[in-house]
Specification:
about 160 residues, alpha+beta, Thiol Ester Dehydrase, Chain A, 6-stranded antiparallel sheet, globular
């Protein structure tokens, strides 16, 4: 019984990683910020990045929009980890502490609820020490792609 459960867990983790890798391959925004996929499991993702000089605001600390984007990227990879296309339908963030240039930070997304139509994910942005910098909550909805005409229906 444990072997079957372990095999199913292993398959689900591989599927989640493949889904995250495929999404990341086309995610030029996350790549441009230097965001890295660190850990991936179904409904859960941890990403990391280093705060660069071009990411600080006029106060000399990391711009809140950068922290939001890191959290949003973790959220996106987590809600798409089942291979079903999901997009953000809403999100909010609470900033708890500032972070300086050169700091290594992570964002860990955890699934709170999920249905066929969407889900809720909580993300904690933290320093390497684990000290929380921000709490983010995202709501996703299934992406409804337009139907493609079948080859027989395409206009000539």
């Amino acid at each position: 019984m444990d072997t079957v459960a372990n095999d199913a867990t292993s398959v689900a983790r591989r599927r989640a990683r493949a889904s995250a890798d495929a999404l990341y391959a086309g995610d030029k925004a996350s790549q441009g910020l230097g965001i890295e996929l660190l850990d991936v499991a179904p409904g859960s993702v941890r990403v990391g990045m280093t705060v660069r000089a071009d990411m600080v605001n006029g106060h000399g600390i990391c711009h809140g929009g950068i922290l939001f984007m890191l959290a949003d990227s973790a959220f996106a990879f987590a809600c798409n980890s089942y291979g079903e296309p999901m997009v953000a339908a809403g999100a909010s963030i609470e900033f708890l502490a500032s972070v300086n240039k050169g700091a290594r930070i992570t964002a860990t997304a955890t699934e709170t609820s999920r249905s066929a139509r969407g889900g809720i994910y909580d993300v904690v942005v933290a320093r390497e020490s684990g000290e929380p910098l921000a709490h983010f909550r995202g709501r996703c909805a299934r992406l409804r792609l337009p139907l493609q005409p079948s080859p027989q229906e395409e206009p000539k």
